[in-house]
Amino acid sequence: MSDATPAKDRVWEVFRQEAEGDPMVHGGSVKAPDEELATHYAREFYGRRQESERLWIVPREAITELDDPDLLKPPFDRSFKRPGGFLIKHKLEAARERAGTAPAEEAGE
Amino acid sequence: MDEAARAEAFYAHVSGGGKVEPDDWMPDDYRAAVLKFVEMHANSELMGVLPEREWILRAPTLRRKLALTSKVQDEVGHAQLLYRVAEDLGKPREQMLADLLAGKTKFHNVFHYPTRSWADVGIIAWLVDAAAIVSQQALRDSSYAPYARTMKKICWEESVHIMHGRDVVLTLMNGTDAQRASVQEALDRWWGPLMQMHGPPTDPATDRDLIWKIKAKGNEQLRQEFLSIYVPRIWELGLTVPDPLLAYDEAAGQWVYTEPDWAELRSVVTGHGPKSQERLEFRREARDATQWVRDAIIGPVGTAAA
Amino acid sequence: MTELDAQTQEALAELLLSMADDEFVLGFWDSEWTGIAPILEEDVAMSSVSQDEIGHAKALYELLAGLTGDDADRIAFGRPADGYRHAALMNHARTDWASSIARRFLYENADAIRLESLANSSYQPLADLVVKMRREETYHLLHFDLWLRRLAEGGEESHSRLAAAIDELWADAQAVFAPLAGEARLMAARILPETLETLRARWLERVRPRLEALGLPVPAAATPPDADGRIRHTEEFAWLHGEFTMVARSDEAATW
Question: For a 10 Å CB count at each end of chain A, is N or C smaller?
Answer without folding.
Answer: C
